[in-house]
# Entry
Amino acid sequence: MTGILHSRLDEKSTPDVKALGAYNALSVLELVRVLGPISRADLARRTSFKSAALTGLVRYLIEEGLLIETEETRTGARAGRPGRLLQVNSSLKSVLGIDIEPDHLRVAVTDLGGAILSYRQIVCNRQQDPETTFELIKSVSRDMGVKSGDVVRVGASCAGLLDEPNGIVLSSTNLPKWKNVPVRAWLEEIFAVPAHIGRSIHQAAWAEHWFRDENSSGKMLVVTLRTGVGFALVDNGIVYQGRDRFDGELGHTVIDINGPLCACGRRGCLEMFLSPASMTRRIKDKVGQGRANRLAPLLAAGLEVDPELIYRMAREGDPDCRGIVDDLVYYLGIGIGNLVNLLNPDSVVLCGAIDVVNEDLLTVLRKEIERQCLPQSWKNLDVRLSKHAERSALLGAAVRAAQNHVNSVVQSHATK
# Structure
């Protein structure tokens, strides 16, 4: 991370943030977030700022409460006065993250660093109207103790086609009653603070970048397995977004022109072989054929057979469930392999509803991806599970809201 920014200011004076610019202040804050707790001397070595410039930026960030100083913990035989370490003051304020998915609503209060302070997940009906969803958001947040003005920002993750600058969900294949829904306006009315919305796949990508390891860099593919299948490309901290921010529809790439009819109106979309709905459909078909006898009583009783149960029974050796999971791995390997051959990333991160996928299954998936990849594309590729599973999009919405708050604080001083 050396050499990120350069300062040409005279070291004889200690400039303020207005002279230095908001971009420099935010860059220092980001460095401390990723590397901290860190001493001023180590911070100086990681940047190209001159001493006076860095002193001014750190002083400003401390005065605004965005950075705090803590004493270094000494171990062993080290003597002398403990040093002072800089770290982000994540507990300064809190934000509200909301993930609106067709079958689930997730709500979390987080600190400015993205640590979850309170969390709720509720099963939803994708056929319900948006007004019902927002009444649910109000009741859930109220149960969590969140009142108007308690948080400084709200961030939302939404499925479908968005007008992100205006905060509107234009449409969603899996939310048929959501047409031109003013999500941002409704959230701002409920919580009386600025709100921001983004597509689920982009929010998940931001979370994976935000919570990255210190030495992580390069190009990362984030693949989400949720109601649908999506992907995003993160290139050295920049999340690629297509025209109108509509991209990443991996689930609607056609892999079988004679395949089953998809909700988008075409046949053979990848989503038809991977989605929870497709797994449930295939189990029902097998029961209708006199197979999958262990699941037949559940369906006869009107109970839903979800992917988690199918995964579990596959691990226990049920041949029909095992066949469905094997097919999922095969088709997912094709989809990811195509992306890897096209984009040649450094890593692939799987997130979404993958908490039921164990490391054994990931090992099989790695082998399938390798089989689909060109040798040079596969070379040194890191394929791993996200640490956040189904919460990635939620956390992305929250941390972007936190960043928007911090940006507004710094910008307000830099422009005065």
About this structure: The chain has three domains: 17-88, 93-205+393-414, 213-386. The chain is about 40% helix and 20% strand. Confidence is low (pLDDT under 50) at residues 1-15.
